[in-house]
Amino acid sequence: MSDEEKPRENTKQSTILDILRNLKPGDRIEVWWADANENNVKVTALPLPNYCVETRQREIGWFVGVQKGDTWGDLHLLFETRITDLDSVSVSKHRISSIPLARKCIHCGEYTLTLVHQLVSN
Fold it and tell me: Which pLDDT score is estimated for 92?
């Protein structure tokens, strides 16, 4: 990740950024993040139960890198969640997860972290 692609730091985010700066491909990581949600409900009066608002995710894998998406230029955290042994007949040997990590402000050009709430390097 180049200096121009590094997300803007603030107190809560600096821990995630510090970990990202020190990660090397293949390092084992644990990622906690919140994803969108979809539910059928009988009423729409707020506040809705939290299970209608967010899906909390925890994924464990091996760090691949950070890459900018082509569509909006958001930075994505890429990590491997499954490796198939070399003797397998499967064509795909690696399963990669991508989580939006940071979005670039259209006004100032700085990146701000988005979905990832906690990152742990093991």
Answer: 76
Give 58-85 pLDDT, tens digit per residue.
Answer: 999 999 999 999 998 899 999 999 888 7
Beta bridge partners of 96: 80
From the centroid of its chain, how far is CA 106? 21
Burial of 51 (0-12, 13-18, 19+ CB in 10 A): exposed
Answer for the pair 11, 18: CB distance below 8 angstroms, yes or no.
no
Sequence-distant contacts of 67-71: CB under 8 A, at least 24 apart:
68/5, 69/100
Which are the contacts of 37, defined by CB distance < 8 A and separation ≥ 6? 51, 52, 53, 54, 55
Helix-strand-coil split of the chain, %, nearest 5: 15, 45, 45
